[in-house]
Design a protein that fits this description.
globular, four-stranded antiparallel beta sheet, 338 residues, mainly beta
Length: 338
C-alpha cells in the first residue's frame, strides 16, 4: 500500500521541572507511519514553533544546512529579541537559541554558516559553536545571497555594488562594483549571476566557468535559480524556463508550466525542483513539486501541488520534502507524492 504524505504540524511543549528548566520538543508524524505519537491535525491548525526559554516566538524565515533546519524567530511586539533556532529534522527537537541583532528578516545557509540578513546588517552564525559575527553593509536590505567556496555574496540594494563576505571571528567585506542597480544574486556553477529584476548584469566569474554560457544568459530573462550544471532557471510570465546552451552556442529553452508566477525555485537532491508561488485571488496553491521525470517531459507539469496558507519562506528538509513557514508563523513540513 502506498500512503500519500500530508503536512506535518510542528507542535511545541515546554516541560518545566523543579530546576526551572525548559526543553523544547517539536513533535509530529507523517500520515501513514506507525507508532505512538500525536496525529496530524486535518485542519492544519498548528501553533507557531515557540517556547524558547519560556518566550513565545514566531518563525518568519527558515533555511537548512549542516544536517539541520534553522528558523529565525522574532518576538512580538516588534522591539523584542530575535533568535536563530536549530531543529533536528529527524527527532524534531529544537536546540539552544542563538541571539542575533536586529533588524533580522531573512535566513540563508552557505559557506559553512547560517546567515541572518535585515536592513543593512548581515550576521553569520557558526552552526557547531553558535558563535556570532556581524557587520553593516553600505546599503540594504539583502534579499538574496549566493555562495562559492568559503565566501558569501550579497547584492547591496541602493548601491551599485555586490558584497563579498568572508566569515570568521570578524566578517571581512569586499565591495565589487556592479552597475545597473543589483538586487539579487544567484549561485551558478563557477559563477555568481547578478540581476536587477529586469535584466542580468555582469556575472562574477570564477576559474573554470563556461563564459559562453554566461554570455548567453545576459540576453535572456533574469535568472532566479540554478537548474543544474551549466543550466539556469529564468521566469517568463507564469512559466518557469530552464535555459541551457545548445550545440549552436545559443540558449536552449524548456518551458515548465506552473500554477502561478514562479517566485523562487530550489533544486532537490533527486533531480526535481520545488517552486514557490505568490498568493492570488481564488487560488490556494503555494508550492509545486516537479520530479526529475516530470522535468524531462516535453511539456512538464507539476508532480504534486501543496494547497493551503500562504508560504512566507521554505527550504529543503534534510529528512525529505520541504519545510516552510506559513502566514501565521507556523513551521510546517510537506513531503509531496512522487
Amino acid at each position: 500500500m502506498f500512503w500519500r504524505p500530508r503536512d506535518l504540524g510542528l507542535r511545541s511543549h515546554v516541560a518545566v521541572g523543579i530546576a526551572v528548566c525548559a526543553l523544547v520538543v517539536v513533535d509530529s508524524v507523517v500520515a501513514g507511519t506507525r507508532g505512538a505519537g500525536p496525529t496530524v491535525d486535518p485542519a492544519g491548525a498548528h501553533p507557531p514553533v515557540g517556547a524558547v526559554a519560556g518566550a513565545r516566538l514566531v518563525a518568519q524565515a527558515v533555511t537548512s544546512g549542516h544536517g539541520s533546519i534553522w528558523t529565525l524567530n522574532c518576538r512580538v511586539p516588534r522591539h523584542g529579541r530575535c533568535v536563530v533556532t536549530k531543529v533536528d529534522p529527524r527527532t524534531e527537537v529544537a536546540g539552544p537559541a542563538v541571539k542575533v541583532p536586529r533588524p533580522a528578516s531573512r535566513l540563508f545557509y552557505g559557506a559553512g554558516h547560517v546567515w541572518v540578513a535585515g536592513g543593512r546588517r548581515i550576521t553569520a552564525v557558526a552552526p557547531a559553536t553558535g558563535a556570532v559575527a556581524t557587520a553593516r553593509l553600505p546599503g540594504g536590505p539583502v534579499d538574496s545571497m549566493a555562495f562559492h567556496g568559503d565566501r558569501a555574496y550579497a547584492a547591496v540594494n541602493g548601491h551599485d555594488q555586490v558584497a563579498e563576505i568572508t566569515p570568521g571571528g570578524v566578517l571581512k567585506i569586499r565591495l565589487i562594483e556592479e552597475r545597473g542597480g543589483p538586487r539579487a544574486v544567484v549561485g551558478l556553477r563557477d559563477a555568481i549571476e547578478v540581476t536587477n529584476g529586469v535584466m542580468n548584469l555582469v556575472p562574477i566569474i570564477f576559474p573554470g566557468a563556461d563564459t559562453t554560457f554566461l554570455a548567453a544568459l545576459q540576453l535572456g530573462r533574469p535568472v532566479i535559480g540554478a537548474a543544474g550544471p551549466q543550466a539556469a532557471w529564468v521566469r517568463r510570465g507564469t512559466h518557469l524556463v530552464r535555459e541551457t546552451l545548445g550545440s549552436d552556442n545559443r540558449p536552449a529553452r524548456r518551458y515548465v508550466a506552473t500554477p502561478g508566477p514562479p517566485m523562487r525555485v530550489v533544486m532537490a537532491g533527486d533531480g526535481g525542483c520545488y517552486v514557490s508561488l505568490p498568493p492570488m485571488p481564488r487560488r490556494r496553491e503555494n508550492l509545486a513539486y516537479f520530479s526529475r521525470k516530470a522535468l524531462e517531459a516535453r511539456h512538464p507539469s507539476p508532480t504534486d501541488v501543496h494547497v493551503g496558507r500562504r508560504v512566507l519562506d521554505f527550504a529543503l528538509d534534510p529528512a525529505g520534502g520541504v519545510v516552510f513557514i506559513d502566514r501565521r508563523g507556523a513551521l510546517q513540513r510537506w513531503v509531496p507524492a512522487t
